[in-house]
Specification:
By secondary structure, the chain is an alpha+beta fold. The protein starts with a strand and ends in a 15-residue tail after the last helix. The chain has a seven-stranded mixed beta sheet, with helices on both faces. Helix 1 crosses helix 3. It is globular. The protein is 32% helix and 29% strand.
Length: 196
């Protein structure tokens, strides 16, 4: 499930962000400390209240424990698009958690939230994120050559692949032939927000 980030998540976020893959493919500080997690939650609440971003915990549906994070890290209301970012803990990688969370959030932002475009920016070499993007219908639109400096490789520059999903793409999923192609199931559109 997706829910609000909260204070008790700080230890789990801190532990997760020690993972070399999260450090390599995201923008988390290195080294990552509990103060970074507390500051991130506070900053995200402030940005959410200002309508600039929305970060959620990916949580185990039974226990409610944090197993990842996903959010709209940049919102452009004038042009109605948002950039999504996500990570999951090593223990749940390969189990479809990132794909499910990405499907849930992208359908919500392109539905009830009112955006027309969702975007992912995936660094060269991040095959797991690329797979989640493609499984959820995002289309590879191009490559930003040499767009970022590899955090783990000195000054080596990496390309960034841009993936996009439009509201019209999601609407097309409702067509019977498209539903069959996607496995026949409904795409979850609710966003669970637990404010405890």
């Amino acid at each position: 499930m997706l829910r609000a980030l909260r204070g008790p998540d700080v230890p789990a976020i801190t532990e997760a962000c020690q993972d070399p893959d999260i450090q390599r493919w995201t923008r988390v500080p290195m080294p990552y400390r509990e103060s970074d997690a507390r500051g991130w939650i506070a900053a995200m609440r402030s940005r959410e209240n200002a309508g600039e971003a929305l970060e959620m915990a990916i949580a185990d549906a039974d226990s409610g424990l944090l197993i990842g994070a996903i959010g709209v890290v940049q919102l452009n209301w004038r042009h109605r698009w948002g950039e999504i970012g996500f990570w999951v803990t090593p223990e749940v990688r390969g189990a479809g958690v990132a794909t499910t969370a990405l499907r849930m959030l992208s359908r919500w932002v392109l539905g009830p939230l009112g955006l027309e475009r969702a975007e992912l920016r995936i660094w060269e070499g991040n095959a797991a994120a690329r797979m989640a993007a493609e499984k959820t219908g995002f289309v590879h639109e191009g490559t930003l050559r040499g767009a970022v400096i590899d955090r783990m490789g000195g000054e080596h520059r990496r390309d960034v692949d841009v993936y996009g999903l439009l509201r019209v793409d999601v609407a097309a999923e409702r067509a019977p032939e498209r539903r069959a192609e996607l496995g026949g199931g409904r795409v979850p559109t609710g966003l669970v927000r637990d404010r405890r």
